[in-house]
């Protein structure tokens, strides 16, 4: 209902929507920017603790559960749901933009080139994936190990008890739905603008206008609603395979034809600079009067985007991760995507910067004239068989678009049907229409700036919830870890000591059970 009100408001009063979003966005950025930085940093540290801490061997499921999906399929799911459209959209755009407007170096210098690659990886590195990992792990732990409903509110049972099943729990799940809708709508808007840009750049008869964007959204909506009817094990799985194969093929094509040695060197240098400067980049706020434009326009937007996307991505990752240990899960969700992102930006970032420099700043000029979404296509135009390559790229973006929206309707269906792992097609169709309408209204209200502002606003309250989710998870893990230790001791010691341990174990189990969500849910 509330999402519908927003859609109607934006459809009839687009300028008012942009004005109101701008006021709220400016207030949050200037007043609570530090909160986004500290929150995402906390999630990175928490993820590291889960890898190296004492709980790493606990399995997300029963002791005899095996992973439902192979590593390749699992990573394909992570890649498609976690970044997808955004990675393609910003592959050339972000390094080139930072080269001309770096956070601290002089523009259009070697230092600016290094800094552009460093900050690009920073925005797509450990922070987003740690944010996803924290939420996904919490949901998977309570769902598959303790058979709780697949709802965000279930994760709060150790803190608020039965209130997680009442009005407070409903409020938590409602907030998760809002964050999910605006998070996915932002990405769908980005995807629509880039598909339109690619078609317009390649074919003279197709204008790069809002109307074309809306037509693209309508067509893609039909496609992902058709995909939604096939379920996760067919539609989403096969699309995810296609996405990662096409993405790797496109990256390999650019790598072979470009400055391959420089790309490898850039990968090594950028990764080293990123790790070396991670603390200063993570917590830098320009507190003493420095320019905050870069911070507000890039870092805070990204951190809000990742937090806003986390209910969707986290719920989806949790859904496909049963049977993995906590350590295996966190390493898989953080390390592998970060390495892939580093190489992706080394290939497309270096290639884009080289072409831009060789052609007298042509990519940057086109971005200023036609929008950031044309950067990738301006670069691909210089490759052999450019029309074919651009066509494949548009197909890749479309496939990412469809998969993200399909996954989004799946997750929203779960969140609004009591946590069902396989919501019915009708519910997914309704949410598909809502997502498309929200993306269209945000583009109608103010283009990409409206998308970014909506994302920053929606993410703020959910970041607070995520902090409490971490606390709740630690409380549950500590209780279960203590129980597991007693069980191990019980097997090792004499009968009298075992009897005392049995009583202590019974007491702890009963106490732990009281803190867990309702485990009568039969869907496992």
UniProtKB/TrEMBL annotation:
Origin superkingdom: Bacteria
Chief localisation class: membrane
Transmembrane segments: 32-52, 72-92, 126-144, 205-226, 238-258, 300-317, 329-347, 385-405, 426-444, 450-474
Keyword Transmembrane included in the entry's annotation: yes
Compartments in which it is found: Cell membrane
Membrane topology of this protein: Multi-pass membrane protein
Molecular function as annotated in GO: transmembrane transporter activity
Entry-linked Pfam families: BCCT (PF02028)
Gene Ontology terms: cellular component: plasma membrane
InterPro entries: BCCT_CS, BCCT_transptr
Entry keyword set: Cell membrane, Membrane, Transmembrane, Transmembrane helix, Transport
NCBIfam families in the record: bcct (TIGR00842)
PANTHER family (alphabetical): HIGH-AFFINITY CHOLINE TRANSPORT PROTEIN, HIGH-AFFINITY CHOLINE TRANSPORT PROTEIN-RELATED
Family to which the UniProt record says this protein belongs: Belongs to the BCCT transporter (TC 2.A.15) family.
Protein name: Glycine/betaine ABC transporter permease
């Amino acid at each position: 209902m509330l999402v519908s009100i927003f859609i109607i408001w934006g459809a009839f009063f687009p300028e008012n929507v942009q004005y109101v979003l701008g006021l709220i966005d400016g207030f949050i950025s200037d007043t609570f920017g530090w909160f986004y930085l500290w929150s995402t940093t906390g999630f990175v540290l928490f993820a590291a603790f889960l890898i190296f801490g004492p709980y790493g061997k606990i399995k997300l499921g029963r002791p005899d559960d095996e992973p439902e999906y192979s590593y390749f399929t699992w990573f394909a799911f992570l890649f498609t749901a976690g970044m997808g459209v955004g990675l393609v959209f910003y592959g050339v755009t972000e390094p080139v933009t930072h080269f001309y407007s770096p956070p601290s170096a002089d523009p259009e210098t070697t230092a600016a080139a290094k800094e552009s690659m460093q900050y690009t990886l920073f925005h797509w590195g450990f922070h987003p994936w740690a944010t996803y990992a924290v939420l996904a792990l919490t949901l998977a732990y309570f769902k598959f190990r303790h058979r709780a409903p697949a709802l965000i509110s279930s994760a709060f049972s150790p803190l608020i008890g039965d209130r997680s099943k009442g009005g407070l729990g409903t409020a938590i799940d409602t907030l998760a739905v809002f964050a999910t809708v605006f998070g996915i709508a932002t990405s769908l808007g980005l995807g629509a603008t880039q598909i339109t840009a690619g078609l317009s750049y390649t074919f003279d008869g197709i204008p790069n206008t809002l109307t074309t964007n809306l037509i693209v959204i309508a067509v893609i909506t039909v496609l992902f609603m058709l995909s939604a009817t096939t379920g996760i094990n067919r539609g989403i799985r096969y699309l995810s395979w296609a996405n990662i194969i096409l993405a790797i093929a496109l990256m390999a094509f650019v790598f072979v034809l470009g400055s391959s040695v420089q790309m490898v060197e850039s990968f090594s240098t950028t990764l080293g600079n990123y790790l070396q400067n991670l603390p200063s980049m993570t917590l830098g706020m320009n507190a003493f009067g420095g320019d905050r434009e870069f911070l507000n326009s890039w870092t805070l937007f990204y951190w809000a985007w990742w937090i806003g996307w986390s209910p969707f991505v986290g719920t989806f990752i949790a859904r496909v991760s049963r049977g993995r240990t906590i350590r295996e899960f966190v390493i898989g969700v953080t390390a592998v995507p970060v390495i892939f992102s580093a190489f992706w930006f080394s290939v497309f970032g270096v290639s884009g910067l080289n072409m831009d420099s060789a052609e007298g700043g042509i990519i940057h000029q086109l971005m200023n004239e036609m929008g950031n979404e044309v950067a990738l296509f301006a670069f691909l135009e210089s490759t052999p068989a450019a029309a074919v390559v651009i066509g494949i790229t548009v197909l890749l973006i479309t496939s990412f678009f469809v998969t993200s929206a399909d996954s989004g309707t799946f997750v929203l269906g779960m969140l609004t049907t009591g946590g069902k792992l396989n919501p019915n097609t009708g519910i997914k169709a309704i949410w598909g229409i809502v997502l498309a309408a929200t993306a269209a209204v945000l583009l109608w209200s103010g283009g990409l700036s409206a998308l970014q502002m909506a994302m920053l606003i929606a993410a703020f309250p959910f970041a607070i919830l995520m902090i409490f989710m971490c606390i709740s998870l630690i409380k549950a893990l500590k209780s279960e870890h203590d129980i597991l230790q007693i069980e191990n001791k019980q097997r090792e010691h004499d009968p009298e000591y075992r009897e005392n341990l049995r009583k202590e174990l019974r007491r702890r189990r009963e106490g732990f059970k009281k803190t867990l969500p309702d485990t009568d849910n039969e869907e496992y």
